[in-house]
Amino acid sequence: FEPRSFFLYGLWLTLCISVISQSIGTTIGVACALGTQSRFRIIRALVALYTWFERGTPLLVQIVFIYTALAAVGIFRFDDIHLGFVVIPGNIQAGIVALSLNEGAYMTEIVRAGILSVDHGQTEAAKSLGMTYFKLMRRIILPQAARVIIPPLGNEFNAMLKNTTLLSVIGVPEMMQVTETQVSATFR
């Protein structure tokens, strides 16, 4: 078993896109989950609208919209980024943005459920000690919520690995597109 270089490149690109998108999506999810606990109605409404929209539209539509529609309307165009000897193409950037935004909506609900699973007495005890809200979340609530958040986070990462195949629509040469072009030509 000796995988060819194009298979390894497709596997590497799939893993990189998945890890980056999952990390950004988890960060968005934590921020939005904290927003759902806000005392300001407008913040809760914006988070609910974001979650509803991202979870309610197909991921393929979101990917195509972010890559083509934003550029066509003139709002934003993903140009290649040159970082020394590394070039990050615009289609990969658009794919990461689309996957991250979609993942952020799902992670919002997962983190929110984790926060709500922590006993309310923990919050009262921390407030009685004079902790600020962010210190309370960082030191008490989120570490206890992690036991509820970690298992679905693993499931979401598995789904993220599969969802990267949708990026082939915008020309990202990840694992599915590499195997399609190479294997279908040789039938091996």
Bin the strand percentage: under 5%
Q: What is the topology, as strand order, of the major beta sheet?
A: 1-2
From the spread of the alpha carbons, the general shape counts as: elongated
From the alpha carbons, calculate the radius of gyration and give it in angstroms: 20 Å
Q: Treating each run of at least 4 consecutive H or I residues as one helix, how many helices? A: 7
- What's the end-to-end separation, in Å? 13 Å
How can the largest sheet be summarized?
2 strands, antiparallel
List low-confidence stretches: none
Query: How many β strands by DSSP?
Result: 2
Helices and strands, in order, run as: HHHEEHHHH
User: Which bin fits the share of residues in helices?
Assistant: over 70%
Mean pLDDT: 88
Structural class, from secondary structure content? mainly alpha
Task: Provide an overview of this structure.
- It is a single chain.
- Helix content is 76%, strand content 3%.
- The chain is mainly alpha-helical and 188 residues long.
- The protein is elongated.
- The two termini are 13 Å apart.
Write a brief structural summary.
The protein has helices at 5-36, 41-56, 59-73, 90-117, 120-128, 133-163, 175-186; strands spanning 81-83, 86-88.
Q: How is this fold's topology laid out?
A:
Elements: H1 5-36, H2 41-56, H3 59-73, E1 81-83, E2 86-88, H4 90-117, H5 120-128, H6 133-163, H7 175-186
Antiparallel strand pairs: 1-2
Helix pairs in contact: 1-2, 1-4, 1-6, 1-7, 2-4, 3-4, 4-6, 5-6
Q: Keywords for this structure?
A:
3% strand, 188 residues, mainly alpha, two-stranded antiparallel sheet, 7 helices, 76% helix
